[in-house]
Specification:
Residues 29-379 form the Aminotransferase class I/classII large domain. Keywords: Aminotransferase, Pyridoxal phosphate, Transferase. Its cofactor is pyridoxal 5'-phosphate. The relative contact order is 0.17. The protein contains 15 helices and 13 strands. Helix 2 packs across helix 11 (268-277), helix 4 (96-107) crosses helix 10 (249-262) and helix 13 (287-302) runs parallel beside helix 15. It is of the alpha/beta class. The mean pLDDT is 96. The chain has helices spanning 15-26, 42-53, 66-80, 96-107, 124-130, 150-156, 179-189, 219-222, 231-234, 249-262, 268-277, 282-285, 287-302, 330-341, 369-381, and strands spanning 29-30, 90-93, 113-118, 134-139, 161-167, 195-199, 225-230, 243-246, 308-309, 317-321, 343-344, 346-347, 360-364. It has a seven-stranded mixed beta sheet with strand order 2-8-7-6-5-3-4, with helices on both faces.
C-alpha cells in the first residue's frame, strides 16, 4: 500500500455526522444537527419545478444566475445600504461551507496566521491548516456571555496575521456582535494588511429587535471582507446547498479563481427559483419573528428542566449548562442523553481546539412544535 501523509491527521468524522447517526440508530429526537424537520415553502418548491420545466437544467454561469445575483444586490442594498456589483462582487456557491473554504483558500498561504474565535464552526480550522496557515485561536467563555476580549485580539496580532474569522449570529453560542465589537474591530484592522471572513449564514435569525451588524454596513470593513450567506438556512432547505459570497472586486477575483475549479457552478434550477422567491421581501423579513417564537417556546419548556439556560440572541440554537448536575464530560453526557433520554444534542467542547469543556450542550430548535414538545417531555422524564 502506498503511504500517504495526511494533511489533517487529527481529523475524523464530524460530530454532526456522529450524533445524527447515533440519533437514527437509537430512535432519538435529533436536536443536534442544525436542520429543520418541517418542509420549506410549497411556493419555492413549485418555483424549482417550474424552473426545471423552463429549461434551467444545464450549467449556470460560473459566478451564478444573473437574476439571482441582481436580487442579492437589491437585498443587501435594502438591508444594509451597501452597494455590491452583481457582476464582479457576488458569487453563488454550493452552500456556506464551500464559500468559507474558497475564501480561505484564496488568501491564505503557508504560515499566514488566522485569528479564530472559539467555540468555532468546525470547518474553519481544518481549511486553514490544509492551506498551510496557522490557527491563532482565542477561547470565549460562557461566564462572560462569550464576549470577545478585543485586548486579547490585539495581543494575537503579528506581522503574519492575514485574516480574522467572525461569525454572527454565532454557531454554537447563539451570541451576536454589538456596535462596540464593530468599533473595536475597525480600530484593529485599520491601516493593517488584515482581511475579514464574516460568516453570516444566520443573518436573518436574530431576535428581540437586535440589529444584525453585517460587515456590509461599514464601508471600512466592507472593503476588507468576504461575507458568506446561506439560502439553506434562509429558506429551510439545507439539503439544497446553495449560498453566496459578497466581496469587493479585488477579493472576488481571487475567490472566483478557486471557485471555478472547486465546483464551477451551482444547481441551475434552484438558483432560478430562489431568484424569483427573493422578489418578495417578506420571505426573509418575517424570519426573525418566526424563529423567535420557536426560541421562546423551546426555552419555556427547557426552564422546567434542571438545565441552566444560556442566552440565545440569534441562530436557531439554544445552549444549556449542566455542570451543577454532574461532572460528566459534555461528550459523554451528550451520548447518554441521546441513548437514554432519546434526545440528541451537540457537546460544545468539540468546537474548541483544545477540547475545553465548560459543560455546555447545544440544542437546535428549528423543529416542529410537536418535536420540541416531545423533546422537552423526554428531558423532563430523564433523571438529570
Amino acid at each position: 500500500m502506498t503511504s500517504i501523509v495526511s494533511k489533517l491527521p487529527q481529523v475524523g468524522t464530524t460530530i454532526f455526522t456522529t450524533m445524527s447517526a447515533l440519533a437514527a440508530k437509537v430512535g432519538a429526537i435529533n436536536l443536534s444537527q442544525g436542520f429543520p424537520d418541517y418542509e420549506c415553502s410549497p411556493q419555492l418548491i413549485e418555483l424549482v419545478n417550474q424552473a426545471m420545466k423552463d429549461g434551467y437544467n444545464q450549467y449556470a454561469p460560473m459566478a451564478g444566475n444573473k437574476l439571482l445575483r441582481d436580487e442579492i444586490a437589491n437585498k443587501v442594498k435594502r438591508l444594509h445600504n451597501a452597494e455590491y456589483n452583481p457582476d464582479t462582487e457576488i458569487t453563488i456557491t454550493a452552500g456556506g461551507t464551500q464559500a468559507i473554504f474558497t475564501a480561505i483558500s484564496a488568501v491564505i498561504h503557508a504560515n499566514d496566521e488566522v485569528i479564530v474565535f472559539e467555540p468555532a464552526f468546525d470547518c474553519y480550522a481544518p481549511t486553514i491548516k490544509v492551506m498551510g496557515g496557522v490557527v491563532k485561536s482565542l477561547e470565549l467563555e460562557p461566564s462572560n456571555g462569550y464576549r470577545i476580549d478585543w485586548g486579547m485580539v490585539k495581543k494575537l496580532i503579528t506581522n503574519r496575521t492575514r485574516l480574522i474569522i467572525l461569525n454572527s449570529p454565532h454557531n454554537p453560542t447563539a451570541t451576536i456582535l454589538h456596535q462596540e465589537d464593530i468599533d473595536q474591530l475597525s480600530s484593529i484592522v485599520r491601516n493593517q494588511d488584515i482581511l475579514i471572513l464574516s460568516d453570516e449564514v444566520y443573518e436573518h435569525l436574530i431576535f428581540d429587535g437586535e440589529q444584525h451588524h453585517s460587515m456590509a454596513r461599514y464601508p471600512d470593513l466592507k472593503e476588507k471582507s468576504f461575507i458568506v450567506a446561506s439560502f439553506g438556512k434562509l429558506f429551510h432547505a439545507t439539503g439544497w446547498k446553495v449560498g453566496y459570497c459578497l466581496a469587493p472586486e479585488y477579493l472576488m477575483n481571487e475567490f472566483r479563481k478557486i471557485h471555478q475549479f472547486l465546483v464551477f457552478s451551482v444547481n441551475s434550477a434552484v438558483q432560478q427559483a430562489v431568484a424569483q422567491y427573493l422578489k418578495d421581501e417578506a420571505t426573509y423579513t418575517s424570519l426573525p419573528a418566526f424563529f423567535q417564537q420557536k426560541r421562546d417556546y423551546f426555552r419555556k419548556g427547557l426552564i422546567e428542566t434542571k438545565f441552566e439556560l444560556l442566552p440565545s440572541y440569534g441562530s436557531y440554537f439554544q445552549s444549556v449548562k449542566y455542570g451543577h448536575l454532574n461532572n460528566e464530560s459534555d461528550i459523554d453526557f451528550a451520548m447518554r442523553l441521546t441513548t437514554e433520554a432519546g434526545v440528541a444534542c451537540i457537546p460544545t467542547s468539540v468546537f474548541y481546539t483544545r477540547g475545553t469543556d465548560y459543560k455546555v450542550l447545544r440544542f437546535c430548535f428549528a423543529k416542529k412544535q410537536e418535536t420540541l414538545d416531545e423533546a422537552v417531555n423526554r428531558l423532563l422524564d430523564f433523571k438529570l
